[in-house]
Specification:
It is a single chain. With 447 residues, the protein is an alpha/beta fold. It has one domain: Rossmann fold. It contains 14 helices and 14 strands. It has helices at 2-21, 83-90, 153-164, 182-197, 224-236, 244-249, 260-263, 280-287, 299-303, 310-333, 353-356, 369-377, 419-422, 425-439; strands at residues 32-38, 56-60, 69-74, 103-106, 124-128, 140-143, 148-151, 174-180, 203-209, 271-276, 338-342, 363-364, 367-368, 385-387. The strands form 3 sheets. The chain has a 10-stranded mixed beta sheet with strand order 4-1-2-5-3-8-9-10-11-14, sandwiched between helices. Helix 1 (2-21) runs antiparallel to helix 14 (425-439). The protein is globular and about 55 Å long. It is an enzyme of class 3 (hydrolase).
């Protein structure tokens, strides 16, 4: 047994050293650092982060032919649905600009490099920082006796837009509203409202990345996500900001309109849906939340899809079927919408250069995500709706399961970044090996 453990430890160290000195999968531009802008006028509108700090965004100015075009990206980062989790969140960079980094790296769809982002590189590109915990949707404030929490996501959205309008947004020629994960859900919530701020002559469209959260039944036959969203909508006062046509249609359960699958048919602005049919966040928190797997039968499958047993693979294929079913009306009947639904075990693919546009990017019918989104936005094709084949047939995927560990329903979730594509090769290898060694009950470096 000691010999076996020594073998695993030695193998681990060798692999870590190998990865540490290996060249990156994608070379070249590492992204542009863009400074934060606090919205000074937000206080007058009552627009505050959870802790009362001012909201913020990062703006990288457009140039040349793109100087009158705008791309706004909602940041993601989970949600909070009760006072305790929201208080905890308010003490992190997910609930306060006081704890946020003051610069943001723009890559993928936010890149200003024409070779890495050919359709949007010279647009005005804005990243909206996320600090409310309800996908920019709430409007309420609560004191628990010791703390005041500001659930002002809707006001933050309005304040940022009003700050950008005199900076050129009011004269936009073309505009795209997008976002990742919780920010992708924000895109559904605010798409039509975004259009209302802009000139009637502007070409305005929206694109959600990893934001098509399903009202799923988990492996224990519960609707964990529905319960979570119902609590969130109630706590943060979101209902009054949901589409009234949707809430009337789903009365007496208006909180269902927080789910994109129910809100989608009421959105008038052209929408593009970018999502994995096996989205790892939804896999880990919607299909198999911890509450549905108390004995950990899914632990190995969650870390490595090749370790899933036939029953677990059937559940995953069923989740894909449910997602495609929820999108079928959109797929068949919308003439202005687009989609890219691939079969990669991933979460958020437009902000990462590796998945947005690179030699190793995922593809459907040999088209990258960047090419597909560009074709849809600029009308380069009659019907830009791509659906990939089911796992495991797509050989362009990385299937980096650990990506889901970077987003959580918990308040202290770290940045929305895929560990498989954003972390250094050394850090990723260490993370994977740590999970493996824990599974083998082997200690590495004393922890």
């Amino acid at each position: 047994m000691k010999t076996t453990r020594l073998f695993y430890k030695t193998a681990a160290v060798v692999l870590l050293l190998y990865v540490a000195v290996s060249p990156p999968l994608v070379s070249g531009d590492t992204g542009r650092r863009v400074n934060m802008t606090l919205v000074r006028g937000a206080a007058a509108l009552g627009a505050f982060c959870l802790d009362g700090s001012l909201p913020a965004y990062h703006l990288d100015r457009g140039f040349g032919a793109g100087s009158d075009n705008w791309l706004l990206q909602f940041e993601g980062g989970g949600w909070c649905n009760d006072m305790a989790s929201c208080v905890d969140r308010s003490k992190t960079h997910r609930g306060s600009t006081r704890f946020m980094t003051k610069t943001a790296v723009f890559t993928g769809i936010l890149s200003n490099n024409a070779s890495l982002n050919p359709d949007f590189y010279n647009w005005n590109r804005v990243r909206l920082r996320y600090c409310d915990g309800a996908s920019f949707g709430g409007d309420r404030q609560i004191s628990n006796g010791t703390s005041m929490l500001y659930f002002r996501g809707q006001r933050i959205w309005n304040a940022i837009i009003l700050d950008l309008l005199p900076k050129g947004l009011a004269k936009a020629n073309k505009a795209l509203l997008t976002g990742c994960s919780a920010g992708g859900l924000s895109t559904f919530l605010h798409c039509d409202n975004f259009t209302s701020y802009l000139p009637k002559t502007a070409n305005v469209k929206c694109m959600s990345d990893a934001g098509f959260f399903l009202d799923a039944i988990d492996v224990a036959s519960n609707r964990t996500m529905r319960s979570f969203y119902t609590q969130l909508v109630s706590l943060q006062g979101v209902q009054k900001n949901l589409d009234p046509n949707c809430t009337r249609a789903f009365y007496p359960e208006p909180s269902l309109c927080f789910f994109p699958q129910y809100a989608l048919r009421f959105i008038k602005t052209p929408m593009f849906i970018l999502n994995s049919a096996y989205d790892v966040f939804q896999f880990h928190h919607g299909l198999v939340p911890p509450s549905a797997d108390p004995t950990g039968r899914w632990n190995r499958c969650k870390v490595n899809v090749t370790a899933c047993n036939p029953h677990q693979l059937d559940a995953l294929q069923g989740f894909r079927t449910d997602m495609l079913g929820a999108l079928m009306n959109f797929f068949r009947n919308t003439t202005r919408g687009g989609m890219f639904i691939n079969s990669c075990f991933d979460h958020c693919q437009s902000a990462l250069q590796e998945t947005w546009l690179s030699p190793i990017s995922p593809r459907i019918h040999n088209k990258t995500i960047a090419e597909t989104v560009g074709d849809w936005y600029f009308g380069r094709g009659d019907d830009v709706k791509e659906i990939g084949c089911p796992y495991p047939c797509d050989k362009t995927c990385h299937n980096l399961i650990p990506a889901s560990t970077t987003d959580s329903l918990a308040p202290n979730a770290p940045d929305h970044k895929s560990l498989g594509t954003q972390l250094s090769p050394f850090s990723l290898a260490f993370f994977l090996l740590y999970i493996f060694l824990c599974t083998m009950n082997i200690q590495l470096f004393g922890f």
